Amino acid sequence: MADAASPTVAEPQSDAPPTPAEDAAAKEQRTANRKKWLIRLALLVGVIALLWLAYYLLVARNYVSTDNAYVNAESAQITPLLSAQAIEVNVSDTNAVKRGDILVRLDPANAKIGVAQAEADLAEARRKFRQTRATSTSLSAQVKARGADIAQMRAQLTTAQSDFEKARIDLDRRLKLKASGAVSGDEITTATNAFNAARAALARAQASVAQSESTRSAAEGELEANEALIRGSTEDSDPGVLAAKARLDAARLDLDRTVIRAPIDGVVTRRQVQIGQRVTQGTPIMTIVPLAQVYVDANFKERQLRRVKVGMPAKVTADIYGGGVEYHGKVVGFSGGTGSSLSLIPAQNATGNWIKVVQRLPVRIALDPKELAEHPLQVGLSTEVEIDVSGH
Known about the structure:
The protein is built from 6 helices and 14 strands. It is an alpha+beta fold. It folds into 3 domains: 61-75 and 290-339 and 357-388, Elongation Factor Tu (Ef-tu), domain 3 (Beta Barrel); 76-108 and 257-288, CATH 2.40.50.100; 111-252, Orthogonal Bundle (Helix Hairpins), CATH 1.10.287.
């Protein structure tokens, strides 16, 4: 009975409102937790910033990179040097060729005719030179003969002069005796006729000497003119022979050009010739790309090039192989202008609506030939380039 009458102890109820003291303590706890997390976040951000700064100072600032880079090469464009029909085509697209391999044969018929004509012209030039040299010998003999004729004519002139003097003296003697009647008229007539004949013979002898001298002068002139054609020349150095040789060399060169050979090692692309087709001089018929000598043109932003210099090392990765294949190269040069300035229609910024656009300058990267041999690259493939500007 006593237990039943004893008073019961009241249990605290959980849904009772917190007291002001408890509310303040909870707020202080939340504030402390928030500050703690903010401090941790600030420390984390600070550590990340320090790590990024350290990475930039030690690594990132020593490299510039771009993915705007493409494989290129100094391709060889094959063009025939004469117009003719293609009678043989030995290569197709994607075929690998070596320098000197025969690519195309052209019809050599016309070229062979040209060689034969040039050989005939050379033989004619040699014969003409020999003929000219022989003519000089003949003319020299004629000059000597004319000299002998002159000597003979002068001897006849001397005889004619003697006969003339004798006839003149005989006539004078008879004319002096005519008055005394010591000579007859017939004798005087005979002496007069003899004198006239001697005088005519003398005139003829003088004319013969003059004619012989003139003939020798003409022969000497012909000899001098003929000697001028061969003086200082041999059969091989004669201008006419040299010109004929040059024409023969040109004809043989045209004959050689009927066989078109590969000028470099590479892969055939864009073949545009078929058997039986008449190719035109100077018209491209195919292109050879030297895959062992390709390079990369990397288009860097102008601000990235402040520290880039020729000779700096570079690393290249190609999309075709992924990051697992890395090429090592070096900077070999810079383009003479930006891509926009060298385009077909350059940008014209002389307007009131001008907006500055960051320009890109092509930088050429030479690659290691051994690495290219292991993992060939084709022209036009996309690549990523990273240049080490640390100078180490």
